[in-house]
Specification:
heterodimer, A: alpha+beta, Beta-Lactamase, Phosphatase 2c, domain 1, Heat Shock Protein 90, 5-stranded antiparallel β-sheet, 20 strands, B: alpha/beta, Transcription Regulator spoIIAA, 5-stranded mixed β-sheet, 4 helices, about 40% helix, globular
């Protein structure tokens, strides 16, 4: 006797031979799969119990195969309307036809076997699922372990420098890494990178890249040459669809000079006395193509300057509305000097404010902060709290009606830490709304694809909002006081209040037209908490 | 966007005062419904209730100037109340306050007219 088990319709039928003590004259019947949709399936499912094949007249291949094997009786095993399997019986040993009693007995047997089989199937499926979950969990643990063992345990401690790092893996561990490499003559190599893909494969590629970078860093004095060497070595080592973005900087801790090269990674930001700058250097990610060369850039960090390296887990994080954190916001936040000097905590806190407290982290988040606390001439404690302007926020908006309201909200968010008095905040809101509305309507002439750029800057005594349009049209007119009597008498249009209102709301209003752009700068002297 | 909506509703008080209750954002979009509401009022004085207004911009000021011009042509007085400190300041800066009487609240406005 052979029992055919069928699992879900999408799966291959599984055949199990039932143990039976067979008399010498008996013959084993081979399993006959019943393909889904076979007319025999419909007949078996119709609930008629054991079925004599001789009574059937069907166009069914399965039926024909059964007859060829000498099957006389089929007993369907049905559970919850699903054909779980069937018992096939050949001729009785007595050569007598199956009696009504025989069929009743077999039918009642089938009705007891079917539910037990269904339970067994479900248990088996659940066990397989649990096993798979356990496997994924273990793989994630292995990946996390590889990654965390290879990340630096201690931060470099160098006189005149403050170096900090932050790494938080996503649940499905991505491939972020960072590293510090101590080189000759007081030079420090700083690495930040990201392997495409997740899990164990990414962790292994990350481990390979890290050791290649460590070895190449001692072979060359130029960061571009280091990246070239690692790129060539990686091409043959990693799967074709994978690559590694990486930024490598060499910091001369005596002079403050930073030389860096970039293989497709997020660009670094530097905050110095004149604001925030993005340091640009381009190059292909590592491991894609042989023979790549990498641009090198040099930037000198002075006392008080901060360089921030990031991974795309920050800039590509989303909030509940589906908006991305983005580079403008990151750049703006780098521009804010935290009161306690803790740049890492301030950036992480802002990211959490943005994504919301319960958001699941989408990707690894990595931050490396290199701060020059004093130059060799300064004493270590002379960290200068100068009244330098800091960029609180930068953003761009399309020239669509109503976007001035969005601009107001963004500016208010940017100045939220300044503690402006309510009346000042209200004046600033009106001034920003009017200025952005002018930029949308008059500057960019309501062409949605033209952007309005807004930069918010603070010094110790002022807050400044710069609004730039790209329309290239008419120059911004002089501020005039509207003649309300003429307007009320109907001699003038009732409109024309915007620019006048802006001028009344702020302490200084500057305009500038350069290369087809108009910029209006609103300056407000800060009162209240300084 | 919900913040862009505007509504003007005429409310006749039992004591004879007519109030136009403004709700939402006062900008150029408000022109039609505010002027229609004004046209629906009668009497020597109309009061504008700004207490449910969250935003007024320069195009909204132009709309209010338009209503003031209509009232002036008909020799009717206009009063306003429910303005935030900020918009009270804006009404002073733009001199709208010279052509309409600004009251602290509805009670003050109604009492002044009695």
């Amino acid at each position: 006797m052979v029992q055919l088990l069928r699992r879900r319709k999408t799966e291959e039928p599984r055949v199990e031979a039932a143990e039976a003590t067979l008399k010498p004259s008996t013959r084993l019947i081979d399993a006959v799969p019943i393909p889904p949709g076979d007319p025999l399936e419909t007949v078996l499912l119709s609930g008629g119990g054991p079925l004599e094949l001789s009574s059937l007249d069907l166009e069914s291949e399965a039926l024909q195969t059964m007859r060829d094997q000498g099957v006389e009786l089929v007993v369907p095993l049905i559970g919850q309307g699903e054909l779980l399997g069937a018992l096939y019986l050949g001729p009785r040993l007595s050569d007598q036809p199956y009696s009504t009693d025989d069929r009743r007995l077999l039918g009642s047997l089938a009705s007891q076997v079917a539910p037990a089989m269904k339970v067994a199937q479900l248990v088996r499926e659940q066990q397989a699922e649990a096993k798979e979950r356990e496997r994924i969990h273990q793989e994630m643990q292995v990946a996390a372990l590889i990654q965390q063992t290879l990340l630096p345990r201690d931060l470099p401690s160098i006189s005149g420098w403050g170096i900090d790092a932050f790494y938080r893996p996503a649940r499905a561990v991505g491939g972020d890494f960072y590293d510090f490499i101590h080189l000759d003559d007081g030079r420090l190599g700083v690495v930040i990178g990201d392997v495409t893909d997740k899990g164990v494969p990414a962790a292994l590629v990350m481990a390979t890249s890290r050791s290649m970078l460590r070895s190449a860093a001692h072979n060359h004095t130029s960061p571009g040459a280091v990246l070239s060497e690692v790129n060539n070595a990686l091409v043959s080592e990693i799967p074709p669809a994978m690559f590694v973005t990486c930024l490598y900087a060499i910091v001369d801790t005596h002079t403050g000079e930073v030389v860096f090269a970039n293989a497709g990674h997020n660009l670094p930001y530097v905050r110095n006395s004149s604001g925030v700058a993005e340091l640009r250097a381009t190059g292909m990610p590592l491991g894609l193509m042989l023979g790549m060369t990498y641009d090198e850039r040099t930037h000198t960090l002075d006392a008080g300057d901060v360089m921030v390296l990031t991974s795309d887990g920050i800039t590509e994080a989303h909030n509940v509305e589906g908006e991305m954190y983005g580079f403008p916001r990151l750049m703006g936040r780098v521009g804010v000097k935290p009161k306690d000097g803790d740049v890492v905590s301030a950036l992480v806190a802002d990211l959490e404010r943005f994504t919301g407290p319960d958001a699941e982290q989408e990707d690894d988040i990595t931050l490396v902060v290199v701060k020059r606390t004093s130059s060799a001439q300064d004493s270590a404690s002379a960290f200068d709290e100068s009244p330098d302007p800091v960029v609180l926020g930068t953003f761009s908006l399309r020239s669509e009606e109503g976007n001035e309201r969005a601009a107001i909200e963004r500016v208010m968010e940017a100045v939220s830490d300044l503690g402006l008095e309510v009346s000042q905040a209200e004046r600033l809101k009106t001034a920003v709304g009017e200025t952005v509305m002018n930029a949308i309507e008059h500057g960019n002439e309501n062409r949605p694809e033209m952007m309005v750029d807004v930069v918010v800057v603070a010094t110790d005594h002022t807050v400044q909002v710069r609004v730039t349009d790209h329309g290239g049209g008419k120059a911004i007119p002089e501020v005039e006081t509207p003649d309300i009597e003429a307007k009320l008498a109907g001699e003038q249009t009732p409109r024309g209040w915007g620019l006048f209102l802006i001028g009344q709301m702020v302490d200084d209003l500057r305009t500038e037209s350069v290369d087809g752009t108009h910029t209006v700068e609103l300056v407000m002297n800060r009162k209240g908490r300084g | 966007m919900p913040g862009e909506e505007f509504e003007a509703r005429v409310v006749e008080r039992d004591d004879g005062d007519t109030i136009i209750e403004l709700t939402g954002t006062v900008n150029r979009v408000a022109k039609e419904s505010l002027e229609a509401a004004y046209e629906a009022t009668e009497g020597s004085r109309v009061l504008l209730d700004f207490s449910k207004v969250d935003y007024i911009n320069s195009t909204g000021i132009a709309v209010i100037v338009g209503v003031l011009a209509m009232a002036r042509a008909e020799g009717r007085a206009v009063g306003a109340y429910g303005l935030s400190d900020h918009y009270r300041e804006v009404f002073q800066i733009t001199r709208l306050a010279d052509f309409m009487t600004i009251y602290d609240d509805e009670t003050a406005a109604v009492t002044a007219g009695a």
